[in-house]
Amino acid sequence: MEPTRDIHGTLSDLLDRILDKGVIINADVIITLAGIPLIAVSLKAAVAGMETMLEYGVMAEWDERTRADARESRKQTVPV
Amino acid sequence: MNNHNEHKHGRYVYCVAESVETINLGAIGLDGNEVYSVLADGLCAVVHDCSAEAYASEDEQTLHRWVINHQDVVKAASERFGTVLPMRFDTIVQDTEKGSVNDNIRRWLTEDGGSLRSRLDRIRGKEEYGVQISWDPKRIAETVSSTDPEIKQVEEEIRGKSKGLSYMYRLRQDKLLKSAMEKEAEDRFKDFYHRIEGCVDEIKVERTKTGEERPMLANLSCLVLREQSAYLAKELEKINSMSGFFVRFTGPWPPYSFVGVE
């Protein structure tokens, strides 16, 4: 069985990886808006208005998970 | 790299690699920006110059274009460097009172060097594949019903019962089927997991997705040695040919799922 490589057929797989995974820098040199990492801003813009997302709890869950990830990584990396 | 726009106070970071020379990958970045590397201590960050603000858009197409572009740059960088640590989308380093933006990148590469290097070691020469296995519950339920001894027993008992009574039996049968299906899902997951585990370097179990065409049983990210994906492909072929099971196989991806801090 050959893996699917077509970019349009695998966009959701790419989004799952690029938006939610990959290396995060935990340092004060990284741009954040009101403590929320940038990707939230992009996602918010792309998917729906912030209020809509908050209403459905999407951001809250996402935000909590991301903060937990960040706390976890911070324990183990040297802050810049 | 002082010839690069020093007036721009941000650097969009695509990935980190081991390198001792500064390189330029050309104007392949987001919105056609020039992509180059910032070196420190044997590591480099592959970046483009940008303002110190987020890439954000109201337009889904634009976001998708950026994401695909990010991925293309990571791909180009891995062709150049071999192994790279892909960054999450929209990672932007900015200047601070402590230093210029490039100073900040160098300080980050130096101070986090140990952690970055051990993550590079983990993924060296490897690629990621996505494996999602879904099933057709109707078809599987038919198989389960015709083989589960308890369900078959109830089926026997229903015969010759009055309408009211057989209704009660049907309820009981549905309940039995539901728990048999849950067990089937669990057993299948374990079976598939072990079979796939034997063909790959590492597996990460991801949350299954809902709202897909068919219910998803397993969502796995697999780290595989380059050129070794044939074993995985073969095993997946077998699973995919089982009646009622469907495999979605994607990749190779840069190992996005295996570069976080464990």
In short:
Chain A is mainly alpha-helical and 80 residues long.
Description of the structure:
The complex is a heterodimer of chains A (80) and B (262). Chain A is mainly alpha-helical and 80 residues long. Chain A has two domains: 9-48, no CATH class; 49-80, no CATH class. Helix content of chain A is 56%, strand content 5%. Chain A is built from four helices and two strands, in the order αββααα. Chain A has helices at residues 11-20, 38-47, 50-55, 58-76, and strands spanning 32-33, 36-37. Chain A has a two-stranded antiparallel sheet with strand order 1-2. In chain A, a hairpin with a 2-residue loop joins β1 and β2. The termini of chain A are far apart. The relative contact order of chain A is 0.13. Chain B has helices spanning 60-81, 101-111, 113-123, 137-147, 149-158, 163-197, 229-240; strands at 10-18, 24-26, 35-40, 43-50, 84-86, 92-94, 126-135, 202-206, 216-225, 245-253. With 262 residues, chain B is of the alpha+beta class. The two termini of chain B are 34 Å apart. In chain B, α4 (137-147) crosses α6 and α5 packs antiparallel against α6. Chain B has two domains: 10-123, no CATH class; 126-258, no CATH class. The longest helix of chain B is centred in the last third of the chain and has 35 residues, at 163-197. In chain B, the strands form two sheets. In chain B, strands 1, 2, 3, 4, 5 and 6 form a six-stranded antiparallel β-sheet that branches. A four-stranded antiparallel β-sheet of chain B has the order 8-9-7-10.
Question: Which descriptors would you attach to this protein?
Answer:
A: 80 residues; mainly alpha; 2 domains; 2 strands; elongated; disordered C terminus; B: 262 residues; alpha+beta; 4-stranded antiparallel β-sheet; 7 helices; 10 strands; 25% strand
